Amino acid sequence: MALVPSRSDSEALIPEVEMNAGADQTATTARVTVVQASSVFYDTPATLDKAEKLVAEAAGYGSQLVLFPEVFVGGYPHGSTFGLVVGNRTAKGKEDFQKYHASAIDVPGPEVSCLSALAGKYKVFLVIGVVERAGYTLYNTVLSFDPLGKYLGKHRKVMPTALERVFWGFGDGSTIPVYDTPIGKMGALICWENRMPLLRTAMYAKGIEIYCAPTVDCMPTWLSSMTHIALEGGCFVLSACQFCRRKNYPPPPEYTFCGLEEEPSPESVVCSGGSVIISPSGTVLAGPNYESEALLTADLDLGEIVRAKFDFDVVGHYSRPEVLSLLVKSDPKPAVSFISAAGRDDDYVQT
Predict the structure, then answer these.
(1) In this model, does residue 21 exceed pLDDT 60?
(2) CB atoms closer than 10 angstroms to residue 63
(3) What's the pTM value of the predicted model, to 2 decimals?
(4) Which catalytic residues are annotated (predicted)?
(5) How far apart are CA 258 and CA 255, in angstroms?
């Protein structure tokens, strides 16, 4: 099948789609790549260099969209507790957080400009997980870029999982975008927030067709979740998971793995991947891979979305709004607002 050619610089920029917007009918196929690889922990410049090599390789395959894992830039702190126990924090844990904070990126910022240039250089849609630094709070965030090198926007994880809640802030309804592109409507949810039925429903209502699910969940049950979402949403699901070994983290005592009887060997697998690409019919098109770092590439027949929706359209003919409905609060939720004496809202700074 022929691939859709890259857009020219004169074409319009990509807006976020409106609720239940009509489907774009210009594209028939899309080639996509899911990256399964590790960060270079505590070394953001080296991680960005690695990202470019991987994007270049994917672009060499003719891929139009490249998806990276959860917090690829900034890294996932496997095995770290940041010195936390109930009622106490250790000095070492605070130092660990300081280093993790230093490895995060500002949005916007120079690293975002670098990623924009990367997407433009290789003419791909780039979707990549980062640790976002907003003042002194960190967020688990996904950034999206178009083939013209334009930064499209971000999604902040709305519910960090378990101990993640003590080192990442919570996103809100203002950063759950779906973007209308020539290869389909694309968006992303991160790791276990993909298990949140109402959040998924919001994405379906925005018309998502290429559903990106960056994660660090390498358990076999993750494949079941991704297959269900593809069937439920009538969409293509792309899930990118890190594959990393102990040697991808600094050696002890700079970085230690807690909760284990002994320190892992350098070759010990910390996160075993499981990245996958699944069609709207539930067919696995690529993966899952649990063996090594890898690039998983597949051609998406976009007509399959319509065929799947004929059977089941979760927010269309299969919805029962007179019985079940969902309200999504999409306005930002700032910590502080200032009210003037005249009773109007003053401008505020949101982090």
Answers:
(1) no
(2) 25
(3) 0.85
(4) 70
(5) 10
Q: How far is CA 108 from CA 6, 112, 131, 175, in A?
A: 26, 6, 13, 15
70 carries an active-site annotation: yes
- We report the CATH number of the domain holding residue 123 as 3.60.110.10
Which range has the worst mean pLDDT, 2-16, 29-43, 129-143, 226-240? 2-16
Task: pLDDT band for 87, please (50, 70, 90 cuts).
Answer: confident
**131: pLDDT strictly greater than 80:** yes
End-to-end, the C-alpha distance of the chain in Å comes to 45
Strand, helix or coil for residue 96? helix
Total domain count, the chain:
1
Catalytic-role residue among 11, 16, 18, 70:
70
Q: Which residues contact 145 (CB under 8 A, 6 or more apart)?
A: 115, 116, 118, 119, 120, 125, 126, 127, 151, 152
Show Cβ contacts of residue 28 under 8 Å, excluding neighbours closer than 6 positions.
1, 2, 4, 301, 302, 303
Domain that holds residue 133: 29-311
